[in-house]
Design brief:
The structure is a homodimer of 217-residue chains. With 217 residues, chain A is an alpha/beta fold. In chain A, 44% of the residues lie in helices and 17% in strands. Chain A has 9 helices and 9 strands. In chain A, strands 5-6-4-3-7-8-9 form a 7-stranded mixed β-sheet, with helices on both faces. The first copy, chain A, has a two-stranded antiparallel sheet with strand order 1-2. In chain A, helix 1 packs across helix 4 and helix 2 packs across helix 3. Chain A starts with 8 loop residues before the first helix and ends in a 6-residue tail after the last helix. At the A-B interface, helix 1, helix 5, helix 6, strand 8 and helix 9 of A face helix 1, helix 5, helix 6, strand 8 and helix 9 of B. The structure holds a DNA duplex (22 and 22 nucleotides).
Chain lengths: 217, 217
DNA sequence: CTATGTGAACAGCTTCACAGCG
DNA sequence: CGCTGTGAAGCTGTTCACATAG
């Protein structure tokens, strides 16, 4: 019923959580699951779960709950992770290399297929797993490679001072979604979606709750 | 005026952003900055900036703006990052090792002082920078080390299936804030604060906006 | 009788608009 | 005058409670 435009952003975020939890239930051979069960596993109210899922369609069966494999398929389709998405990565530093080896991306339908860096000492080096190595390419080849392989998502893990420039290049290379690890607010064209992960900020949040105002210590 | 309890969570998150932006202005030798300037740099409204800062105290000077160095100090104090916080890390996999080498933590007042893993092949190995190596210790020594060094924050980057058990151990070791990279909802005692970073979910978010409903392609 | 989907009530956050201070 | 701090208004998201379907 809901037509994609009125869906609250928090609901979209939780959709990923539902998928993961559904997969866990599926692995345990649950055939159906109720909004209550799903909610308890994720610390959400049952009403929240129902309302969220209802934004995307009518998946539930009154008196029964949600059929697990069916809902998994639906959610994957909605999120576009029913097919594998090719991803490029820019910045072969510590974090970049860790992300290339990160299994979690592959598990959820993302494959890093190209790596770029502008450090001459890194270009040409193979990184990643031995069985499927990735050769680091110079940044100026990004547009060419992205277009040829039709890559539309990119991971950005270069130093903060380079991030804005690289984001611009990514846009010009046809990248439409950027996962940004640099601690800056990227200015990009409106058709490009940016999702930022700021590692230090998360620690600062913890610090606030531990050391901030209202603490006895 | 506001007494720490009524502060909206989003405002606390933005406080980190303000600090970072203020430091940028400070590096450019700005003496004062207005809520408008701060807001523009972070894509926030000026009213938002003023309201957020006002939750934590009266820092502004009417007709002038905010004095940059003064506000930096205040915000650091509020967040508890005016002093260096010791942090331990559990899980010396790819991500863990990348985080240990990550400069961003140090820059913002966090120092990783101990690393734990339960893989016998890793225990005893030195990782991190050559000048200040960290020797990987077995998990069962965590409580001892944490108490001796008075460590209250921890980074958790073990595989999903081990995360809950390790989180429990961290609680028992006196850790009060956990930065969790495992894709699970951790169940912890209420006095423990958890902040989770789920890398795959961020990519899924991008996928939704790129490949999800309402896309022409 | 069980569990969904959903309008209505509620809560929380953001924006507005302006009084007040330097 | 310029810019902050803040009640009031507005908006977005969450919870409630119930009609409805199996």
């Amino acid at each position: 019923m809901a037509k994609a435009e009125n869906i609250p952003t928090p609901a979209v975020k939780r959709l990923s959580l539902y998928l993961r939890q559904l997969e866990t239930f599926d692995a345990k051979d649950y055939k159906t699951v109720s909004s209550k069960q799903l909610g308890e596993a994720l610390s959400l109210s049952d009403a929240q779960v129902r309302k969220d899922l209802a934004y995307f369609g009518q998946f539930g069966h009154p008196g029964v709950g949600y059929r697990v494999p069916e809902l998994i398929q639906q959610v994957r389709r909605i999120m576009g992770t029913d097919k594998i998405s090719k991803v490029l990565l820019v910045g072969a530093g510590n974090l970049g290399r860790a992300l290339i080896s990160f299994r979690g991306f592959t598990k959820r339908g993302f494959e890093i297929v190209a790596v770029f860096d502008n450090n001459p000492e890194k270009i040409g080096i193979d990184i990643g797993s031995v069985d499927r190595p990735l050769r680091i390419k110079p940044l100026d080849r990004m547009a060419e490679v992205a277009r040829k392989s039709n890559i539309r998502m990119g991971v950005l893990c270069v130093p903060a001072q380079d991030a804005q420039a690289v984001a611009k290049s990514m846009g010009e290379a046809g990248i439409r979604g950027i996962l940004n690890f640099a601690p800056v607010r990227l200015q990009v064209d409106p058709q490009i979606t940016v999702s930022s992960v700021d590692l230090a900020i998360h620690l600062e949040q913890l610090s606030f709750f531990l050391n901030g105002p209202g603490q006895s210590a």
